[in-house]
Amino acid sequence: MPLKIVEPQRLYRQIAEQLRSLISKGEFAVGSRLPAERDLAKQLGVSRPSVREALIALEVEHVIEVRSGSGIYVLKPKPRQPSRKKISGAAEWGPLEVMRARELVESEVAALAAHNAKKADLQLIDCALQQMRDEVVKGRIPRDGDEAFHNAIAQACGNEVLRDTICGYWQARRGTLFERLGDYFEDQTSWDAALIEHAQVLEAIRAHDAGAARSAMQRHLKKAHTRYSASWRRAKTS
Prior knowledge:
Elements: H1 11-24, H2 37-44, H3 48-60, E1 64-67, E2 71-74, H4 95-116, H5 119-137, H6 143-157, H7 160-173, H8 176-185, H9 188-206, H10 210-228
Antiparallel strand pairs: 1-2
Helix pairs in contact: 1-3, 2-3, 3-8, 4-6, 4-7, 4-9, 4-10, 5-6, 5-9, 6-7, 9-10
């Protein structure tokens, strides 16, 4: 038998495959509740964010169902459809892993933007923030305005490699796993808080205060990560 190319898998994918295998073998019966996220993390020897990403992946594939305030339940298996499109690159990045990377990189991007931003850059960032506000007022999740805001800051930093890096983060942000996580943990309250955080970033960049811009962006992304890492019991039902 010819050898097949061995392809690396992201950690959350490995966790998802292990859980799927246990379910298919009857270790977790249809209709039964899986162990709590923290217990799975302890048994698998991995972080809770990695387990959460794996659970979201399994939910997207209709292997499990998350019932807010109750738990995570095994669904009746469906025939697995062959994927027509291979998931790779940014689209396969784990959402919470992306948030950690953004916290490190975008805080420095904001500091550079504070050094380098010109009047036109500041206007672009301000317009993106206003777009976010308008979307929230209309009752929409302001993802377009959010992307425009962070991309405008990346443009203002004056480094094309960093700008392309930020674009990669937003390719991941538009992925299925990220969207599903947002369905649970993004709401009016979270976006009201995020708007205040974005305004603080802009204020620091406008003042050309690199230290304050770095701190404001880091604080914003830490809080965003915390919002996505909240207890399932606090998540919205779909």
